[in-house]
C-alpha cells in the first residue's frame, strides 16, 4: 500500500492573520503527576499479573536491587501521555561502571512482550517507545526529555557490575492534556459496558487533545484533518473545548499549498508547517468541520472568514470527475477512506464529495451566497444522479466501485451518509451488506464509525448499538484503556505497518463512541 | 581471574582536614573545542581511508543526506576526552517520525568495527561507548551529557522515514584536561619514533589528567594508586602539575578504612569515596609516591603530614609474612603486579614490600624519626635475606615464586627494583630471563614499564631503549594516538575482559615512555 503521497516541490503559502488566530487559541496544557499503581509481570499473550518476585507495591521499589538482566514492569493504572522522571540510586559497593538500562513504554500490555529487534515494518522504527540510557553517576534524577504514551513502563538493567546493583527509588509521569476528565459527567446508564465504552472514548479523546487534536500521541502527533472531524464532534458532546477546534481550522486554512489546497495534515514543531501529503477526502472535509463548528458555537465570524477556504477545496477537486460526473481514480494514495487493502475508492470518494458539497451548500446558504448555493446544488444533483446511474447495481441492490465493479462496505456507507439513497433504501443496502458480507471489509475504527453512523442515519439504532458493543466493546474486552488506531475483531494483531509494535493504541479516530452514545442514545 | 576483592562491610573513616586540602587542589579543567578533521571509512582490520561516498571534508557534512541505514564516521584527528555536541537538521518533506540514530565512539579505528551486540565479557557492557538517541523535532542541537574518550565518532541513521533524511550540520567536541599540551616542549631528538613515543605518552598522560589522575578516561575514571605512581613520575618530567599529585595523595590519606588502610582506588563522584578494593602492592605504594612528590617539590609539610599514613600501610601489611620473613600468599586478587594469568605473586609481592619499605625508611630519615628508620631497616634486611635464602635459585640464577617455584618476569623485575640483587647480578638475571623466556611473561604496559626500569637500573640503557622501541613502538606502529591499557606484541587483540571492545586505549599506566625518555635518555 503506497501510503506516501508527497508533493515535495509544493509551494507553501501562509496566511499570517489566520496563523495568528491559531496561535491565540493555543491551549495551556493541564498537568497531573501520576505514579505507578502496581508492579506487574506480563505474559507473552498480554495477560498481566502482580509481580510476586518483587515486594508488592511501588512504594517498595527501593527494596528491589536490580542486577544485570533484572527488570521491573510498572503499571500506571491507565493510559498516560506525559513526561517521565526516574529517581535512581545504587546499592552495594561504590558504582564502578555506568548504569546501563533500557526503558520500554507500552500503551497496552501485549506491546511490552514484543521484541523490537524483530521489527521490520515500513514505518520508522523510531516510533518504538524504547530508550537505552547510560547514567555515569548515581544517585541521579533522570528527567526524560521526550513525551511518551503508555500505561506500562519496564526498566531493564542491561548491565551494572558484579559490585553494585541499580535501585529505582521513584518513577513518576507528568501527564499532560488540554482538557480534564473531571470536567465531563459520566453517561447516564446502568449498562456497565456502555459506561466503560464512554470512559475509554473520553480518555482517548483527552489524551489526543494536546497543543492540537493529535492523531495518536504515541506515534503520529500531527494534526490530521480526517481525524479532526471526528474529534471535534466528540469534543462537542464532552469537553466542549471550542478554541482547540478553532485553532485547528485556522491552522489548516492558514497553511496551504499556493493554490489554496488544504493539506491532509500539519506539524506544529519546530514551527507550524503543512505537510506535503494531500488526500481528496481529507481536503474536502474542511467544509463539514467548519459547519459542525458553526452549528455548535454559532461563531459566524469564523464561519465567514474560513468559508473561502472550504469552498476552494470543492473548486479544486471538482475537476476530478469525468464528463459523466463520475470520479476519476488517481494512482496511489490519493484518497484515504480506509486501510482495507485493494479497496476500490471510486464510489466512496464520489460519495464523500457529495457529502461535503452538501455541507458547503449549507454554509453558503447561511452566508446568503446564493450563487454558490445554486452552483453547489447543481454539483450535488449531477453527482448523485451519476452515482445512481453508473454505480448503483439493481441486481444486487448495492453500489459498485471502479471498472471491476467492486462491492465494499466503504462504498455503501458513504453513499448512505451522502444521502444518495433515502433512509428506507439505505436500510435495504445495509441489510444486503450484512447478508452478503463482501470481501472488502472495514479495517479502521474510522470506517467502523461511519458504518455505525450510516446505521443510525437509516433508523437502525438498535443494530448500531449492538455493533458498537461488538466492535469497540471488543477492544474493551481485550483490555483497552483507550481505543486503538486499528482493530479487526477477526484478527486483533493486524497492522498496516508490518508489525503491531508500532500500532497506536490511543487514536483520534477511534474516540467516537462517546459522541455516538451521547448524541443518539444516552444523555 | 578473580578481579573483584570487595570488603563490602568495610567501615570508612574520613580525615576532613585532608579532604579539604584535596578539595583546595581541585584543578580547573582547561577546555578546547575540536572539530572532526576527516570523514573516513574504516575496514574490518582497522585500516582507515577517506570516505569517498561523502563529499570529502567535514565542512561538506550538511550536503550528505542520511536515510535509513546510512552512516558517517568522523575522525577528530587525535584522541579526545570531552563532551560532544551535534547540530542536526532534516531535509526532504517535514520530519514525520523521530530521528533515531546510534552514536559510536572509538579510541582506535579497530574499535569502530567491533559489534557491541556480540560482547560477552565479564565487565559491564555499559562501558561500550555507544548511544541510541531519538530526536523528535529537528533542527536540534543535541548536547550529550556524558564524557567520551575517542578519536572516531560514527553516526548511524537507524531510521528516518521514507519522506525525510537526517543532516548532520556540525559536530564538535569540548575536550577537557587539567593540563595543556602546549606547556611541554618536545623531546630533543632526531629520532622520529622517539619523538612520536614522547608525544603519544604526553597525550596519554594529558587525557588522564582530569579532576584526578584517572586510570583511563574511557572506562575507568577512578583514581588508582598504582597508576598514580607512574603518572606522577611522568608529570614531574613534563606538565609539572604538582597540585594534582598533592590532591590525590590527600584523597587517599583522607579516605581510608577504619584501620587506616589505603584503598586501591577511589571515586570522586557523586562524592569522594574510597572503594572497597584493597591490594597489597597498591596500599604500599603510598610511601614511594609521597617520597617522589617530596623529592620533586620539597614540600616538607605534606611529607610530614602524610608520613603516618605511608607508615601505617607497612605496619598493617608486615603481618603478611611468616616466621621465615617470607610472604604468605592470600587467596584471590590480593596483590596486582600484572594481569598475567596464573602468575604466582609471592616473590614480586615480597620485593614490592622491600621496595616500598626502603622509601619509607628514607622518609623516616628525612623526618629524623630514627626509631622508625632503624625498625624499617631491620624489616628490609630480614626480607632481603629471606628472599635470597628461600626464593633465589642458584641453579637457574633466577628468583622463584611460591611452592611451585614458578619463574616469571615479574619476580625478577621486582627483586631488581627492590635492590635485592646488585646491578651486576641484576644484569645477569635479566640476561638469563631473556635467554629462558619463561612462560609467565608480561601483559600490561605497567609491568613492561617496570621491566624497562629494571634494565635501566642495571645499566642496560641501550637494551632498555631497544625494548621501548619494540614495546611502545609496537603500539605506535599499530596507529596508537595514546598508549593502551593492554598490549601484547604477540597478540594485539588480547583482553582480560573477554573482548577488546571494552579495552581502554588511553591508559594511565602506559604513559611512562615520556618519563623514561626524558629522565634517562633525552633532555
Automatic annotation (TrEMBL), chains A, B:
Domain Alpha-L-rhamnosidase six-hairpin glycosidase: 187-518
SUPFAM superfamilies for this protein: Six-hairpin glycosidases
Domain Glycosyl hydrolase family 78 alpha-rhamnosidase N-terminal: start-end pairs: 37-174
Family matches, as InterPro entries: 6-hairpin_glycosidase_sf, 6hp_glycosidase-like_sf, Bac_rhamnosid6H, Glyco_hydro_78_N
Pfam families, alphabetized: Bac_rhamnosid6H, Glyco_hydro_78_N
Biological processes, Gene Ontology terms: carbohydrate metabolic process
Name this polypeptide is given: Alpha-L-rhamnosidase-like protein
